[in-house]
């Protein structure tokens, strides 16, 4: 019995991807070898890396616009320091919308001055600040597009007046259409909408690099990886392969526009129930609600055990909220079927009946 | 038909590991979830990480000796800079035995003075320098235990007189018994004897840390990862799981001592044939020959096509030498069966007959 997997990440991927990845561990491309035992320099794997990079650029609508897609290691946490290492000469501007923004700010401070242009810390990050301005003398502006823990998401990105925009899109990349050419660097740990944990997509506009006086260690220098097509050192072969399979699946689903429709449907279903059901209340400000992670609480804790028992009986997995927020979080990444959200909504209705 | 896989890395792993890993991609621990979609904070995965760390320490004979095993990302290439970032205050001593040592030296120079205590570059790294001394004022001494490209291996490690020894054991970790407590840091990309590409084992003696004045970004600080049991950020779940399976397999095979016997048998078989067969010659100095990677050449290039055709017909994969050396390289990591080496030796004998 497959579960309805609302895990915040690593999270559900398409079932067809699990099946293909499982088969490749036994016999990759009918080569008689496992994907785990082939050289990353082999023709077959070079083709995988190439396709993964091309699909990422294509799905973001960035073909011919001077961008390069890299598949690196170390997660967004490594990008927190790499972005600053490569771009921060004097001052950077950061928008603070939660735990991950705060961590990015902490790392950047090791490399220069950081101006926090706005923060929603005053209300435990339950909203996205608006009406801030990005200082004209900043080397770059950094923001987090979706806040997994708090369930908020930036709907309108600021106009930066030519200041390069760097965005951590770990938890909503490939989930909705945006003008991605507004960003100079987009980075995302794979383990939400793209693949298994173990690789990080970094999409870099090449012309923003090489402007810093600092010496950069090879592995931390975006130019190293661009020059070697993400093959400067041994890449995480299986994670890249599985990401490529997931990006292929996304393309078949109509790409970012196609999946956005499904994501909107799923989000409407759960938020409508949160707002309708007298036993629940949402955590995030309504206008800033995330399409990926719906955070909500029981108004009365006395229904906790009953709700969780009903959810478990319905084979629902991974809806406990993060400790900073409490309550519940339904993560509805690209691969989560509508019927999983419907199942959760039915449990919420059932609770109302039984309560 | 399975191939005889002599790939230099990523390389062959035990067939039973491929089967278990493939199954876990469909249904991990009979949970109804793929290993790729579970939270790294789930009880089941925390148990995997814990077992992997314990097995690494146990198999190296380092229990109760103040060491911590970490499973990180970024490969040995990231360790080149992390070792220096964490330990190099003024001066470090490096032994240069090939491509990977040279790369480690390049990165360390960004952080302080590097004294190259000896190098075998004069003979294209076909031997291991001896009779050098480690300066008493070095912060640490760094060496590469096995040189995959050149097929050399350090048999006797120097006495460092209390200077911490840091060793890149990427290509021979867990292959032979050593007094591992002589080392303060051992690091190794997983993709030879330990697992798939995508995780890096770092074994750190905790008391050598915290002695540096430099500020270290969180992800590059060994203390960050020690404090969080390799879970500071999302670890590469599948690579760690598959490494754990491989370490379990190694323990069942009698651990490092058990596998060493098999590795010695395989190495004797191929080197005896290289020395006996009048068509071939070895590349590395005899006393420094690697038990993992045998490098050899045809004395007369005119037999190249015939040799490679015979090898292909025998389902032999991955014996082309690295471009810096040319010729052939038979990588015989832990999981390579004796019969694969016997098959290659038979092909070498057959070439002699047909030539």
UniProtKB/TrEMBL annotation, chains A, B:
Coiled coil: none annotated. L-glutamate binds at residue 41. The modification N6-(pyridoxal phosphate)lysine is found at residue 192. Pathway: Amino-acid biosynthesis; L-serine biosynthesis; L-serine from 3-phospho-D-glycerate: step 2/3; Cofactor biosynthesis; pyridoxine 5'-phosphate biosynthesis; pyridoxine 5'-phosphate from D-erythrose 4-phosphate: step 3/5. GO terms for molecular function: transaminase activity. Residues 5-343 form the Aminotransferase class V domain. Binds 1 pyridoxal phosphate per subunit. Keywords: Amino-acid biosynthesis, Aminotransferase, Cytoplasm, Pyridoxal phosphate, Pyridoxine biosynthesis, Serine biosynthesis, Transferase. Pfam families: Aminotran_5 (PF00266). Gene3D superfamilies: Aspartate Aminotransferase, domain 1, Type I PLP-dependent aspartate aminotransferase-like (Major domain). It catalyses: 4-(phosphooxy)-L-threonine + 2-oxoglutarate = (R)-3-hydroxy-2-oxo-4-phosphooxybutanoate + L-glutamate; O-phospho-L-serine + 2-oxoglutarate = 3-phosphooxypyruvate + L-glutamate. It is found in: Cytoplasm. Its cofactor is pyridoxal 5'-phosphate. It is an enzyme of class 2 (transferase). Its EC number is 2.6.1.52. Pyridoxal 5'-phosphate binds at residues 76-77, 100, 148, 168, 191, 233-234. Belongs to the class-V pyridoxal-phosphate-dependent aminotransferase family. SerC subfamily. Homodimer. NCBIfam families: PRK05355.1, serC_1. Catalyzes the reversible conversion of 3-phosphohydroxypyruvate to phosphoserine and of 3-hydroxy-2-oxo-4-phosphonooxybutanoate to phosphohydroxythreonine. This is Phosphoserine aminotransferase. It comes from Mesonia mobilis.
